[in-house]
Fold:
Amino acid sequence: MLRWKVARVMGIDLYVHWSFLLVPVLVLLAFWDHGAPLLAQQQAFYYLCLAFATFGCVILHELGHARMARLFRIRTRDITISFIGGAARLERMSDKPWEEFLIAIAGPAVNVVIACALVVIALPLFVLVGGRTAFQETPATAFIGSLLGINIILVLFNMLPAFPMDGGRVLRALLSLVMDHLRATEMATYVGMAIAMVFGIVGAMFITTWPALLLIALFVFTAGQQELAMTRRRYAMLYEQPIDVIPADQAGPFPKVHVVDPGFSGMAWDVSRRAWVIWHNGRPVSTYGAKPE
Structure:
């Protein structure tokens, strides 16, 4: 992917994805008015500052994840900021529920702290300028109020149980307390897929207002599937138990519903057996990863 390194914070490389360049472009397109160029420039400057301040909060959000992960001896490879937000790339994910819970909750907690700090700043200013109307009309105070609302939205949005977003990881961590890690990942992924479809429908209905919602829906759907596949593979290797080759004319324990396309060779996940099945020329030949009873 095309991205540029712009800084190094807390020993972590910070990158900007090419899609981030869409932010200033869209702001200028939204507020440029040839009939009133001075007003348009002022509005564009205001919203550009607000956009960059928002992404500053997103960076702090990701650093919150990184800092908490470091407490559990998990390094953060890098942080990338894109059009749809930020992503901290950890060198590994913890299999311990409470570690994953704390790492996931650390990001939104940073936004809560920022929101509280903005409230402390906004309250005396609200009294000083003389009410809500004046507060909203003064650029500096309106900026603070807008940034406060954005951080509240970031907290609420990130805590939606849409795996692999923060709320989805919190959900998986809580589910892992009552079931195995793989089953918890499957359940969290299915919930995330359902939420992604809602995002997609709403994004399609209001594409001119919330175009990023379609990209978020695509990210949640695909990233959740990818992490589920990786979890299944890692889980399978923990319980690797190869069996003898199955004769070609013997159906064996594999249900017909899981038969793949004719001529397929490779690995496929068997839902009923919760194991990887190795296929050769359209026939199951071995399996591994079934958890011992």
